[in-house]
Each structure stands twice: as C-alpha cells, then as structure tokens.
Amino acid sequence: MRAEIIAVGSELLLGQILNSNAKFISLRLAEIGIDVNYHTVVGDNPKRLEEVITIAKGRADVLIFTGGLGPTKDDLTKETIAKQIGTVLVSDDTALRYIHEHFERSGRTMTENNKKQALVFQGAQVLANHTGMAPGMAVENEGTHYLLLPGPPHEMEPMFTKEATPYLFSVLGKKELIKSRVLKFYGIGEAELEFRIQDLLEKQTNPTIAPLASKSAVTLRITAKALSEIEANLLIDAVEKEIRSIVGEFIYGIDEDTLSSKAAELLGESNLTLAAAESLTAGMFMAELADEPGISSSLSGGVVVYNNDMKVKQLGIEESLLTKYGVVSSECAAALAVSVMKKFGTDVGIGITGAAGPDPHDGKAVGTVWIGIVALGEAPKTYKLSLSGLRNTNRLRASQFTLYYLIQFLKDKKAQN
Amino acid sequence: MRAEIIAVGSELLLGQILNSNAKFISLRLAEIGIDVNYHTVVGDNPKRLEEVITIAKGRADVLIFTGGLGPTKDDLTKETIAKQIGTVLVSDDTALRYIHEHFERSGRTMTENNKKQALVFQGAQVLANHTGMAPGMAVENEGTHYLLLPGPPHEMEPMFTKEATPYLFSVLGKKELIKSRVLKFYGIGEAELEFRIQDLLEKQTNPTIAPLASKSAVTLRITAKALSEIEANLLIDAVEKEIRSIVGEFIYGIDEDTLSSKAAELLGESNLTLAAAESLTAGMFMAELADEPGISSSLSGGVVVYNNDMKVKQLGIEESLLTKYGVVSSECAAALAVSVMKKFGTDVGIGITGAAGPDPHDGKAVGTVWIGIVALGEAPKTYKLSLSGLRNTNRLRASQFTLYYLIQFLKDKKAQN
C-alpha cells in the first residue's frame, strides 16, 4: 500500500510555516507498514489542487490531505475533492453540535461560515476533532482512499493517532490494534545504542523497535500489534525487559517523561529539597528543573558563580583547593555541592564546573566538566564529562547530564530505602 | 515566473527530517518575486524522480532541487536530470580541487566515490559550495531552468543566497543586485507592528519590507534591489530611518543580533559588571546571557531564590517589605536587584520576580512579573509585565523582557555619557 501526503495551504508555499505534518504522518505510516512515496504541497487554489489529486490517485492508494478544512473562503479542500470523486457535502450533526458547544464555552458568537466546518462527504467516516472545530473524514472511491485532516498540528496529530490510524488498519485488513511505548535514553549515543541492541533490532517483527534521535535525546519506540490491549502490553513488556537487561542504566523514563519532569517527580516522591551552584551552565540546570510546576517545594534555589572570584566570595570555596586542583576539578565540583547545600539548608546539593569554550578554562580542555552531587550526611559523588561540542552545546549537555545523574542518584537512594 | 521546489531524499519520506529547505527557499523566492506553486518530496528512486521532473517541467519554469548530490550510490539527482535533459556529466576542476583540499585539511583519505561529487552538467553554471563538498549547478533546457542544490541546510542556504540568487536575477533579466537588512524587534507583537507601519508596508516596492514572526521574536526584513551595493544600502538606510521614527524603541538590533548578544556587547563596551537575583526564571536570564563567549568579564554571577524563604535568608530582603507589598511587587524586584548588586559587588543588579503559573503566586495573577534594574549609586527602575502564556512561556518571556529592558537601560546610559 502506497501513500501520498498532500498539504494544502499557500502559507507553506510562501515559506511562512514548516510542513511538520508531513514528517509526523510519515513517521506513523512507516510504523504501520504503509510506504510513503511522495509529499506534495499545493496552495489554496482549486484548479491546481484538482491537478494534484489527479496525479496522486494515479500513483498512490491512500491520499492523506492536511489543511484547508477551515471556515474561510480560502479553505477549499473538501469542495475540490467532493467534485473530483463525485460526492456531495452534508452537515454532520455531531460535528455541528461540537462547534456550537465550542462557541458557547468561549463566549464568542458563531457566524454562518463556521457551519461550513461541519460539512462532510456523504457516507464518509467522520474523524472526530477533540482539539479543534473542523472534523476530519475518510472515504474510499474507486479503490483510492481519501483521508482529510485539519492543518494545525495540535488538531491533526491526535486525530491521526486516534481516528485515522484505526481507519488505515481496517483498510489494511487488520483486526489488531496498535500500541506504542517510548523508552527515553540519556548518556548513550544513537549509534552505540543500536550497536548494543543490534540482535534485538534485527530479530523483532512484533513488537517492532524503532530508534529515533533528536537534538537532546535518544528514544526507542516499541510498537506492538495485537488483538487486545492486554496482549499488546504483554508483548511490549517482554521487549522492554530485554532492552533494560542490556542498556537499562541509560533509560531515565518512558513516553512523556523528560529529564526535568523525572527529576522533579523523584525529588517530590522522596521529599528532598535541593540547591545548586552553577558555573559554566550559569543557571541553566535550575531553570530546566523549574520547568516543572510545583517544583518550589523541592528547589530552594542556588547560586550562579560564573566569575571565579565568586566561588570563593559567595560560597567560601577555599583558595588553596582551587590552587591545588583547579576550578575545573572533581574537588571543586564536590566543594560547590557541599557549600551550596549548607548555605541553602537543603537535603541535596549540586555543583557544576567546567570549560564550556571557546577557550580552555584554567588549563582544562574545552568540554571538560565536573558535576558534584551530595546528600546531607553523605560523601559527595562526582562525575566527569568530556564533551566535544561548541560552547552552548557543551553547556546544554552539562545541564542535561546533571539532571541525568541526579535521576540515577535519586533512584539509587529510593532503592536503598 | 513559476517555481517548484523538489526535495530528493527517502529520509524525508520516512519522517526522519523536516523539509526546512523548502521553507527557506520559498521565503527567498517570495522576496525576489518568483511564485512558488508546488513543493514536492520524492525518494532516492530514479524512476519516480524522472516522473516528478516530467510533471514539474509541465507546470513550472524554474525547478529547484535539494538533496541527492552526495557521494553514495543513493545520490542520483544529477544522473537522473542529466538523462532527462540529454546532457552529460563532466568533472569540474575547481570543485575537484576543493574536495581534495577538504580531505587534506581534515586528514582523512579521499575515496574514489568522492570524485563523483565534482561531476557537473556540461555547460552548466557551477554554484560554489563554501561550506561543504558537493557543488551546485544551474542550467537551462528547453525553456526550463534547473537548479541543483545540496541537501544539508548549512550548505544549501549560503549557496542559495550567494550563488543561486544572482542566477535567478539574471534569468529574470535583472541587472540589479539584491541586499537585505533584518531589523530585530522585542516587546511588540507582529500585528501591532504591522498596524503601526501599515502605510510604509503598503507603499513600499523597493525596498520591500517583509515582517516575520517566530516564537520568540518579530523581525522586519528590508530588501533592496539596486545597481550597486552603495545604492542598495542608501535605499535600506532611508527605510530603516522611517521605521525607527515610528517604532524605534522596540528595535534592539539588526541581522545576526540576539537579545543576549546585544546585551553582552553593550555590557562589554561600557565595562560594567552585573549580577542577578532570579525567582520565577530560576536562572534562565543568566543562562541566556552566558550564551555569549567572553561574558565572564561582565557577568559575575547571581542567586536563584526560587523558594520564598530564600529571598529573606539569602538576600536579606526584609520580611516587612514582603508582608507589605508581596513577593510579586515593584518593591521586591527593586530590593532583589539592589541586594544582589551589593552582595556580588557589581555595577548593575537585576531582580526578577513573578507568578509563572499554573497557579497564582502570593495573590498575584498568573503572568504578573516585575523586573528591577539598578546601577550603582542610582535609584532602581522597575518594569511590570502582564503575560498571558502558559507557565514556561511566561518564564521565557520574563527572561527575554529582562534582556530587552537591560539593553534599553544600557543604551540610555551610553547616550548619557
């Protein structure tokens, strides 16, 4: 089965927005085994859209349209396709009621053209829109499947997952449902991860395991097909267990977890307060942790000691220590952690020091970072990084690695209790 | 003149990367008055690419290809187009020498397939690649123009600007050169900016003025066409002056300036040191400022007082002040700024306090932020924000507005001296 993804919207052709919908849909279609052979973008122009449809139905079995379902006169996707496949538009009661409710909730007045959004092809399967107003739809005509989805990604993505995917499954003649779990990794590169689980990657067919690397994280998406959710979960659990036995130390969370949400969750669960002393990261670690609502019961605060003098003046780090070991050292990271913990009266202290670049710092090579973590009444632990990026990548990685080591530290503490 | 942008690469169809090249090229073509009617993405498949070319030359005058110019056997853009337009590939001496030099510099060994990258259409205009190895090319065949550009954006973008744009100008029969200057705004929304310079926007033809809003900034790109660079600059200067007379207070820089680079530049020029006390931003302001290399001579450091108690304990803010005015107040922001300036012995102090959300803080509505800025021996100035975003957007905006007000503050100081 071959698919073509067709985005309709002049704003794409003017370069005002990115076609991120095509990327999202392509990834999901790859997972369920539908090949994408083309992406096409066309403007809000019925004649050109008609030509695009004629070409697409000659080379693909599934045409997935995004955009052009709105209430304005520019939005012509439905009307143009209806004309091509010889169907008529009828008002969908459920969609119309939903649009009415939407306007009531927001206290705005509904205008006549908003009713246009409730029009769907006669006989089409309506795809509910739970995050916007325009419903989607799916219909088959002369062996070609037409799926129409809204343009805004926050409407399109949930509709694709919850409404369009089951339709495509039924088209593929599959009775199974599909379920995914994403494992989140830190501290391991994509190539290294793939190498270490190579056997698993090669032998898997159901569930499938798909690695994906973004700028700041590596993930594995485990996708199972099964006749029930329980069965799908059992299949995923088994593969997850195998993966954890090989590279479990690098997994910090699943699905929607982020480094900061996981660290905040563990701090909250263990009722621990934290303070940090940051040098090269200059507040980035604390700012990332504070992304999480409710963090004020865990994060007391901290000190940014960007300038070297300030490490001595603000945190009482002994000059003799700095002279003997240097500012970028295990000893300095530990001393920063201990000092800020005492100063802020917290349970846990963090110290981060390093050479971000572009120049070496205090004789240490660019990318050398020391992270110190200490808990009240315990000896500090320190971790060394040797990063190879540019200045701000190094600073970001230093901050992320601190979150990662903090997560491991808190998990170990939890396991001990 | 109608253009079609054709991206070649299976990784796009698998959803692994975004087609950001299409967005970049579309924006630039809009500026020089070439209409983009279609974007197409096709995989590394010669048969399908051939069909795409056949369709495209029937509906566009300029076909701009990105990707598929690399050394591997998957890279087939050149070979496929050569076959279609009936030309042959010849080795380009300049490109080959450049590839040789590239390998010499990096100390790696050049393999036979790298020579493939130096192949260009016989008689084509070679577009130099100054940031990678594969040269681009431009050629006309039966009234259709073919431009071939590399896929990696850091190679494609400078090549498009420096090499492809002059080619397109010559195709358009224009002898002029094109020159742009970007004005960077903060503290004003896109709609408000467009409204205030509406007359200018409507009457301009040369230079053109193009507004563009991204997540964190609003910009105006002034683009002039002229027979010489001097003339283009004069045209741009005149328009810039008009714009500044209307909305100059919101312009913080030009071209590559960012809020943090501009603030760092002004701090450096005026030889001032700075410390900050951050509450809701939790270090984000200092971390953004520390994006700039060499900032350690200006940024001494600061304190994150996330937890309310810490404002009293770490910075000696009087409890009576907090009781009387509240934590989210002009008075608290000023006191934080003064206290951290004294504590760190700097010339300038910054205080940031506010209610990020999701819940109101100390009786103040979500989005209420106070920023204090003080210079040694002067009375503190405070600024109030009423933001309407979610928690982390509010925190980001609070940090950016602090940079913006700091820039204004430093500019005023400079003007006084």
Automatic annotation (TrEMBL), chains A, B:
InterPro entries the record matches: CinA (IPR050101), CinA-like_C (IPR036653), CinA_C (IPR008136), CinA_KH (IPR041424), Competence-induced_CinA (IPR008135), MoaB/Mog-like_dom_sf (IPR036425), MoaB/Mog_dom (IPR001453)
Q: Which SUPFAM superfamilies match?
A: CinA-like (SSF142433), Molybdenum cofactor biosynthesis proteins (SSF53218)
CDD domains on file: cinA
Q: Which residues form the MoaB/Mog domain?
A: 4-171
Q: Which residues cross the membrane?
A: none
State a single Pfam family of this protein: MoCF_biosynth
Q: Which family does it belong to?
A: Belongs to the CinA family.
Q: What is this protein called?
A: Putative competence-damage inducible protein
